[in-house]
Specification:
The chain has 431 residues and is mostly beta strands. Helix content is 6%, strand content 31%. The protein is built from two helices and 30 strands. The strands form eleven sheets. Strands 1, 2, 3, 4 and 5 form a five-stranded mixed beta sheet that branches. Strands 6-7-8 form a three-stranded antiparallel beta sheet, with no helix packed on it. A three-stranded antiparallel beta sheet has the order 18-17-30, with no helix packed on it. Strand 22 and strand 23 form a beta hairpin. The longest helix has 20 residues. The chain is elongated and about 150 Å long.
Length: 431
């Protein structure tokens, strides 16, 4: 028989309970983390504590998103209520139905106000009547107000007209009913400003005219017809006291002429673009659409001479269309090569059938032309001479494009001219 003392038994019983609990506590991981005073803590991880977004002051104010709450509950940020929101009057309890709710928003969004609720500056509308010019009333629940069939008349308005005042140069106006009309009349032109060459009588009904001291051609009897009754049109001066046509152009653009004449005829290259005639003396010049000029008189220039005089010079005439060029050269060992000026060569026929006339500037055995081409020619001394004499030359060549022209018959250019109409038979404007 074994005998065990009470103390021994107690030891073994305590060991049975303490040892398993010690083993269980040692298996729980240690809790870590730090916190800030007054912040509600939250589990950052399964074993770590930290600050949450909720803050509580020492006096019991709770802030969400703020550490300085201004009320018992201060939310700094957005908030969503996903069910019923109810606001109870102060010092009441939700279970005390005698007080009711001050404000509530149900889960479906319906808003309920406390009994007797009013809004600043507003009252409760129970009925809407329709007055003058309107139809559809009275409305107690829902309905539509519309303009009456007769509309809003002027009699219904406090101000049923407008006043139109006629200013300077106008007459009429006055009170005009809404929907009515009035007419303003022009009593004259207020003023007209005129420039050089224009006369003005002034006033509200001025008469404008041409100042004949600046345009003297209009001081005499002139006639113009644009071809309404006669063809072609005419510009005609009845007496010889003024210029019939006077063209002035102050343009600085070189392609803007004072007088421009154009003929768009496409039937004949010899049709005229301009014809100038003095029938009493047989003088006439014409320019055709190809640019050819022919005159019954002489062609010449007016050369300036001392004493502000001008001397007339005549141009030489020829049976064919020749173009001349002049130059100088000198033999070297009895020979010299002359190149035609490139610009001159472009205006002539481009062949070697031009003529060269030589004039020695010293004693030699004589000169002749050799090896003539379309761009150059050689000058040599006769009998194989070897002198170095200088010389002048004159080249005469056909103009390019009219090589075959010779003594053309231009009789047709100076006949069949239109007959000048008499002033009495023409219809136009006289000045």
């Amino acid at each position: 028989m074994f005998r065990i003392s009470v103390g021994v038994c107690a030891f073994f019983v305590l060991a049975c309970f303490v040892l398993p609990m010690a083993a269980q506590q040692s298996a729980v991981p240690p809790i870590t983390g730090t916190g800030t005073p007054n912040h509600i803590t939250k589990w950052i991880t399964t074993t770590k504590l930290g600050n949450s977004g909720i803050f509580e002051t020492t006096t019991g104010e709770v802030g969400i998103g703020t550490t300085t709450p201004a009320a018992k509950l201060d939310l700094n940020g957005t908030g969503d209520v996903r069910d019923t929101l109810t606001l109870f009057p102060k010092s009441t309890h939700p279970t005390l139905s005698i007080h009711g709710t001050a404000f509530a928003v149900s889960s479906t969004g319906k808003v309920t106000f406390v009994s007797g609720q009013t809004f600043p500056g507003a009252g409760t509308v129970t009925k809407v009547n329709s007055g003058a010019g309107l139809t559809g009333g009275p409305i107690t629940t829902t309905g539509t107000l519309s303009i009456a069939t007769g509309g809003v008349t002027n009699a219904m308005l406090a101000n049923s007209s407008v006043t139109v005042k006629a200013g300077t140069g106008l007459s009429g106006g006055g009170a005009v009913a809404l929907g009515g009309s009035t007419t303003l009349n022009n009593t004259g032109v207020l003023s007209v400003t005129t420039g050089a060459g224009i006369t003005n009588t002034g006033g509200q009904n001025p008469t404008l005219g041409i100042d004949t001291t600046i345009v003297p051609e209009l001081a005499i009897t002139n006639f113009f017809s644009a071809g309404q009754f006669i063809d072609p049109g005419y510009l005609y001066t009845q007496n010889g006291d003024a210029t019939a046509v006077y063209a002035i152009n102050a343009s600085t653009v070189p392609t803007n002429p004072a007088l421009y004449v154009e003929n768009d005829d496409v039937t004949n290259a010899g049709d005229l673009a301009l014809d100038v005639k003095g029938p009493n003396f047989g003088g006439e010049c014409s320019i055709d659409v190809s640019g050819n000029l022919f005159c019954t008189g002489t062609l010449g220039v007016a050369a300036k001479a001392p004493g502000n005089k001008k001397i007339g010079l005549y141009t030489m005439q020829s049976s064919e269309d020749w173009i001349e060029d002049f130059g100088s050269g000198a033999l070297s060992g009895g020979v010299a090569t002359i190149q035609l000026d490139q610009r001159y060569a472009k205006t002539i026929s481009g062949k070697s059938d031009y003529h060269v006339f030589l004039t020695p500037a010293g004693d030699c055995g004589g000169l002749y032309i050799a090896n003539r081409t379309a761009t150059s020619f050689e000058v040599r001394e006769l009998k194989n001479g070897s002198s170095s004499v200088a010389f002048d030359y004159r080249i005469v060549a056909h103009r390019k494009g009219v090589e075959s022209s010779r003594l053309p018959d231009v009789t047709g250019r100076f006949i069949s001219k239109p007959v000048r109409p008499s002033v009495s038979s023409a219809s136009g404007v006289r000045r």
